[in-house]
């Protein structure tokens, strides 16, 4: 991911993303009221859990305990919650007649991308 000004040789952000990004679905927009650029990245591999958006930030900010920092690096507990949420979303998509609101996992959630044949694209 590179973010910078046109006709300048330096970038504000020049980092590798955690995994592949679908560039055709990703976008950005400028909020002129706030003076902020919003970047929306869409994962190329549906169901994949990212530990951070940018690899450099995750590697630089993680400590020996593997806990989260202000960089957006996901700690182990948060990663497990993300996996559980993704599995429930997957179950809901695959079984629209069922209501999974309030459903919970006991123990560790499996990897959503690999569980029972993986995520299907619709």
Q: What are the segments in which pLDDT stays under 50 over at least 5 consecutive residues?
A: 62-70
Helix run count: 2
Alpha-beta content class: alpha+beta
The end-to-end span amounts to 27 Å
Tell me the overall shape: elongated
User: Biggest β-sheet: count, sense, barrel?
Assistant: 2 strands, antiparallel
What strand order characterises the main sheet?
1-2
Mean of residue pLDDT values? 79
Kindly state the percentage of residues in helix. Answer: 10-25%
Beta-strand residue fraction: 5-15%
| Estimated radius of gyration | 17 Å
Number of strands: 4
Write the element-wise H/E pattern from the N-terminal end onward: EEEEHH
Please describe what this structure looks like.
The chain has 122 residues and is α+β, with helices and mostly antiparallel strands. 21% of the residues lie in helices and 14% in strands. The protein contains two helices and four strands; from the N terminus they run ββββαα. It has helices spanning 55-61, 76-94; strands at 2-4, 11-14, 27-31, 36-40. The strands form two sheets. It has a two-stranded antiparallel sheet. The chain has a two-stranded antiparallel sheet with strand order 3-4. A hairpin with a 4-residue loop joins strand 3 and strand 4 (36-40). It is elongated.
Quick description:
The chain has 122 residues and is an alpha+beta fold. The chain contains 2 helices and 4 strands. The strands form 2 sheets. Strands 1-2 form a two-stranded antiparallel sheet. Strands 3-4 form a two-stranded antiparallel sheet.
Task: Throw out a few tags for this protein.
alpha+beta; 122 residues
């Amino acid at each position: 991911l590179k973010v910078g000004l046109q006709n300048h040789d330096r970038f504000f952000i020049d980092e590798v993303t955690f995994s592949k990004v679908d560039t055709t679905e990703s976008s950005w927009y400028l909020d002129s009221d706030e003076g902020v650029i919003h970047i929306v990245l869409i994962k190329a591999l549906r169901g994949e859990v990212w530990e951070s958006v940018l690899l450099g930030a995750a590697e630089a900010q993680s400590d020996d305990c593997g806990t989260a920092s202000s960089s957006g690096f996901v700690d182990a507990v948060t990663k497990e919650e993300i996996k559980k949420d993704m599995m429930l979303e997957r179950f809901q998509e695959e079984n629209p007649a069922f209501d999974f609101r309030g459903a919970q996992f006991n123990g560790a959630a499996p990897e959503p991308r690999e569980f029972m044949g993986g995520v299907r694209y619709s």
